[in-house]
Amino acid sequence: VQLQESGPGLVKPSETLSLTCTVTGVSVTDGYYWNWIRQPPGKPLEWIGFIDYRGTTFHNPSLQGRVTISRDTSRGQFFLHLTSVTATDTAVYYCARLVYATSPYYFDYWGQGILLTVSA
Amino acid sequence: DIQMTQSPSSLSASVGDTVTISCRASQSIGNHLSWFHHKPGAAPKLLIYAASNLHSGAPSRFSGSGSGTDFTLTIRSLQPEDFATYFCHHSHSRPYTFGQGTKLEIK
């Protein structure tokens, strides 16, 4: 199982951030939850949200409705769109798989992360 | 949101030492806690899940303990590849949150 993030390294303030996570070795329709997580410079990791194997999504309320997570099952990809970005959205963004079949849940595979900078 | 507080924030040790890292939750999370190893530019690696279960592929020198609000990661006989940042994560309820990380450095 491998996850790989891709996307632009730079986004202008007020624009929409779009990232892709490509999953290999397992289908995104298998029984897992597919997550986005970020780490701003000098701060702890922050969970953004997930899309599950059925296509149901859930995101962190702290992002105030700016988040959309979607997927393309034929390509084995899921996506993050974050609108109205500001400098506080500058972070390393990770995608990760959450094992949800048994409790407690846990992230077992992560991508290596992609640095996204918000700047004019 | 449940706050996760790790201590110490940094730690110096030598190869062969045993170290412990703590993680405290702001409310009881049962055993819904994981520990990760992370080096810059690399994918975080799962070490421990369900507070004390060693993930397949993680070396047996790593162990976890605790329940409720207080948890510990112990690393015995430190190896050179162990010098990295370690962080905890709770999955008790959404939103999931993480500890701020403990940087383990070579003395």
Report on the structure:
- The complex is a heterodimer of chains A (120) and B (107).
- Chain A is mainly beta and 120 residues long.
- Chain A has no helices and eleven strands.
- In chain A, the strands form two sheets. In chain A, strands 2, 4, 5, 6, 9, 10 and 11 form a seven-stranded mixed beta sheet that branches. A four-stranded antiparallel beta sheet of chain A has the order 1-3-8-7, with no helix packed on it.
- Chain A is globular.
- With 107 residues, chain B is mainly beta.
- In chain B, 0% of the residues lie in helices and 50% in strands.
- Chain B has no helices and eleven strands.
- In chain B, strands 2, 4, 5, 6, 9, 10 and 11 form a seven-stranded mixed beta sheet that branches.
- In chain B, a hairpin with a 3-residue loop joins strand 5 and strand 6.
- Chain B starts with a strand and ends with a strand.
- The model of chain B has no long low-confidence stretch (mean pLDDT 97).
- Chains A and B meet through strand 9 and strand 10 of A and strand 4, strand 5 and strand 10 of B.
Succession of helices and strands of chain A: EEEEEEEEEEE
Proportion of beta-strand residues of chain A = over 45%
Give me the strand/helix succession of chain B. EEEEEEEEEEE
User: Pair with the most extensive interface?
Assistant: A-B, 25 and 30 residues
Cα separation of the termini of chain B:
36 Å
Query: Helix count of chain B, per DSSP?
Result: 0
How would a textbook summarize the main sheet of chain A? 7 strands, mixed
Biggest sheet details of chain B: 7 strands, mixed
Number of β-strand runs of chain B: 11
Calculate the mean pLDDT score of chain A and round it: 96
| Overall spatial form of chain B | globular
Low-confidence runs of chain A: none
Helix share bin of chain B:
under 10%
Please describe the structure with a list of short key phrases separated by commas or semicolons:
heterodimer; A: 120 residues; mainly beta; seven-stranded mixed sheet; 0% helix; 53% strand; B: 107 residues; four-stranded antiparallel sheet; 11 strands
